[in-house]
Amino acid sequence: MILLTGRGEELADPPGRDLLIHDGHTFEAIARAIDRSFARWDLSHLHEFALLDGRRIAMEDAEEFGEITSERPLDERLHTLTSVGLGVGQTFQYVFDFGDGWEHRCTVLRDDVDPVAECGSVPNEIVPIFGWGTIPDQYGRSSAAQDETE
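-> structure tokens emitted (150 positions)
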């Protein structure tokens, strides 16, 4: 996945991460893995996925804060890439924090990955296996000493 925008800005040199996901991982697990991979620590914000066909996959509380549509979003706790019909080459969007709009473009790259060859064992959870670029701070801070209210 590639981080495209955040805090109202398009990222000039977007960072990315490749994750090792299997058929049983739900979108809820995928969201947690994306947030971990992009160094997010304040996870109190809402998030949702958007498929190219217009379907939305959301956390339980997201519907009341998202845009009003006639179609209820799918529950991220129940659905997987396979259950919504996503295969190799297909893309979808992940947005974390509706206020700051951390937008990611996610692409299913492969379906023939051997987890033992990639990371030495079959992991219990989703793990990043490759990454590039500098991850921006969730609140725009540039040093440990900088207060988020500046």
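The first strand starts at residue 2 and ends at 6.
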